Amino acid sequence: MQFSERRARFNRRVTNPLFLPISGWLPLWSIIEHVGRRSGKTYRTPVSMFRTDDGVAVLLVYGPNRDWVKNLQATGGGRVTLYGKTFDVTDPRIVPTGEAVRALKTPWRQLLGSAGVESALLLTRA
Fold it and tell me: Is residue 20, in this structure, part of any structural domain at all?
């Protein structure tokens, strides 16, 4: 198992449950709500999310093959909580990080442009 896969598993089991109560209220700690493709169960996953002009961007630090990304793609969207506001999002699309960074506002554009993450998820606010 690769290091990034082990880190993702650790975060899912240890870090995420610790940060879920404060996620959605603090910068860099947001919540994406999605419905499982097979289970139909609603999940809440803490992610680092950033505003764009028409929605939000999420850097895919662990790559695009995460279950929560696949769930959003399968259902066409979900809900996010960002800075204490909850709203629906649609049209999930994976793009190169450079494209997503251009949609971000300052100072995130400069900071995340050099993050070394290959892809990002863009979601449109419904």
Answer: no
